[in-house]
Amino acid sequence: MNRTNDLLKIRELLQRRRRDILHATQGAQRELTALKDQDRDPEYEENAQAELADYTLSSLMEAQRREVMLIDAALRRMDTGVFGTCVDCGYDIPIERLEALPFAIRCEEDATRHELDMRGGHQATPTI
Prior knowledge:
By secondary structure, the chain is mostly helical. The protein contains four helices and no strands.
């Protein structure tokens, strides 16, 4: 398969994932609304459980929102013809990396270098 076909396949996967996320987000939004609309039991445990469920759904929806933003950015890069090109070195990002991480904007070498720079270089304390 050539690179163009591989990139089209990645586009289809991104579009499908975006649709799935938006569908799941709508369901989570309905659950969150139902949770907020239900009568609250005056007992602390019930309220604590409802608040935890509210927080969990809100966190899930935020993670989904961030993923949709990454997908939209990748689709924009596809539309402008720069998807799959490393923003640092300008070379093609290997298709295997794009299949595993379709939001990648850097080749593996430059991504590693960028992460080290963001953490303060080789002398920085590694993240766990």
